[in-house]
Target: Globin domain-containing protein
Amino acid sequence: MLTQNAQHAESVAEEDFVLSNIADRISQFFHQLIEDDVLMNTVELKKSCYDLGRQHAAYSKKQFKISFWEEFTLTMMDVLEQNYPQTTKEEQKAWLHFQRFINENMLDGYLDALSYNNK
Model:
């Protein structure tokens, strides 16, 4: 589970609000990938993830730790396992591969944006 960060949330209620908004944005991102039929186009999928990663560079004055990206993937997998216990091991592996693909391309965009902003 993501830990509270006093830099961004000053109360439990505010943290819940922020996390709820983040969850909505994550859901919207995946919905948009499906709606725009991007999933079958690797080039477009990479670009969508890269662009989202670039946006993340503006979310914080401090650089995200690289470990946060993997923690997000693991948290998503935990939610999948907890909420959809009928998911097969093969499906879980496919989701993990997909999540890592998304993370890798988001991280590329994030790091590129940081290096551009630091010039």
